[in-house]
Amino acid sequence: MKLLSVSSEAFPLIKTGGLADVVGALPAALAPEGIEMRTLLPGYPAVMERIKGAKVAARVSALGVEARVLAVTEGGLDLFVLDAPALYDRPGGPYTDATGTDWPDNWHRFAALSFVAGEIAKGLVPGFVPDLVHAHDWQAGLVPAYLRFGGAHQPSVMTIHNIAFQGQFRADIFSQLGLPDAAHGIDGIEYYGDVGFLKGGMQLADAITTVSPTYAQEILHPEFGMGLEGVVAAKRDRVIGIVNGIDTTEWNPAQDPHLPAKYGPRRLPKRSANRAAVQDAFGLDDGPEPILCVISRLTWQKGMDVLADSLDDLVRAGAKLALLGSGDRGLEGALHAGAARHPGKIGVKIGYSEPMSHLLQGGADAILIPSRFEPCGLTQLYGLRYGCVPVVARTGGLNDTVVDANMAGVRAGVATGVQFTGVTRTALIGAVERTVALHAQPDIWQRIQVNGMRADVGWEQSAREYAALYRSLM
After folding, report:
1. All domains of the chain, ordered by start, with CATH?
2. Annotated binding residue at 320?
3. What does the entry list as the binding residues for ADP-alpha-D-glucose (predicted)?
4. Per-block mean pLDDT, blocks of 10 residues, the chain (474 long)
5. What confidence score (pLDDT) does residue 100 get?
6. Distance CA 394, CA 326 (A)
7. Cross-strand pairs, 71
């Protein structure tokens, strides 16, 4: 089976979050299932730099912009890259300029990506016609529309990685999308009079997937559905939750080049060298308190406001904190202020570093994830893999992947982390206090670590579920 995957990012070429990790890992995971997947990406400067020498597979007018489709294998991925300098050759990130402001033509940039996906489905690239097209998030949300209204025959899958990001634009862009009037209706891409990229993808795709079973249920309700819960409910017979996996080669503590000391479930004492490196990097003292790490965007969704308000209580509970992330400037300031109040107990680094994220997973005692909603989450899976015990809010994929260390879980020997309900200061500190108490019992703590390290966090089972879905649609 030949598949075309359409995404705005894919690791290792371009990454802003977990979407890239998933899109980058899926092709290799699906290969044992007899599925050949090619991934269509925008030609951002960072991508073009990686694929010098790529061959021109086709030329196309992408909604009024002359472009080329380049074919190349890079970073372990078979790629089509949409080389359209007028749309993608600019400084800043994939979605925003250097100041963090959305590009005003994002509707055009990603509608063009979806349009070209539809053209590839119809045979634009000689020798490649996909059997099915898999679109990821709002940036590829118009793919099902271009398939449906453009005369392509292939079924489509729309994956929601985070329903909070929907791609809603003013109605007057519709005339520039190259779609018939019939597409701008309640059964198409119309959304409260405007154009909804994600809404259209959900409405027109043959199947909708979310990245965890719990999240598939949560988005049926207004608290999590972000205005699209009605569409989810109407299409619930075609909504399926498939939990993400991780690349267990890229994330392997026994071979990780970013760790001072390599280790495995039977060599956990070696983690102490990594712990010392975390202390040095974040200016923490060498006391026995457990080090909790946070690797996150600093946003309301991630519960970072509650964490910022709880820093004094966290230290009083007997824990230390090493935080790596960026986002809301006010939260950044509050976290820095907390670090200034508690030198040696709280360390904060603003920004993101892949090597540093590996070091934190390999050296911190636990990873704290107080998200208000989390479609799947990957950092808790990395934590499990690395013996960095997840301390998580009971929501979405966090609920599906972490077994709480309550009395029953500990006695049965199956616990892999700590869960808490409700993202409040009281619930968060209660979970920290439980974590500190568990850490003070070395035998129990090590059992929890080993359980997590032996958990199935790879792609095998999820790949089988995706393959079964694809075949059912064929």
Report:
1. 2-245+459-473 (3.40.50.2000), 268-453 (3.40.50.2000)
2. no
3. 15
4. 98 92 94 98 98 96 98 97 98 92 97 98 98 98 98 97 97 98 96 97 98 97 96 96 94 98 97 98 98 97 98 98 96 98 98 95 98 97 98 98 97 98 98 98 98 97 97 96
5. 86
6. 23
7. 55, 80
Please spell the DSSP secondary structure of 208-236, one letter per residue.
EEESSHHHHHHTTSHHHHTT-HHHHHHTG
What backbone phi and psi angles, to 5 degrees, belong to 347? -125, 135
Check if the beta carbon of residue 84 is closer than 8 Å to that of residue 65. Answer: yes
Alpha-carbon gap, residue 275 to 381, rounded angstroms: 19
Distance CA 79, CA 185 (A): 33
Q: Is 80 in contact with 120 (CB distance < 8 Å)?
A: yes
CA distance 412 to 274: 30
pLDDT at 17: 85
Q: What angle do CA 427, 432, 438 make, to 5 degrees?
A: 125
- The two tokens of residue 67 are 């472009």
Instruction: For residue 464, give both structure tokens.
Output: 């089988």
The answer to whether 311 and 336 have CB atoms below 8 angstroms apart is no
> pTM (2 decimals)?
0.93
The count of residues in the chain is 474
Question: Three-state DSSP class for 62?
Answer: strand
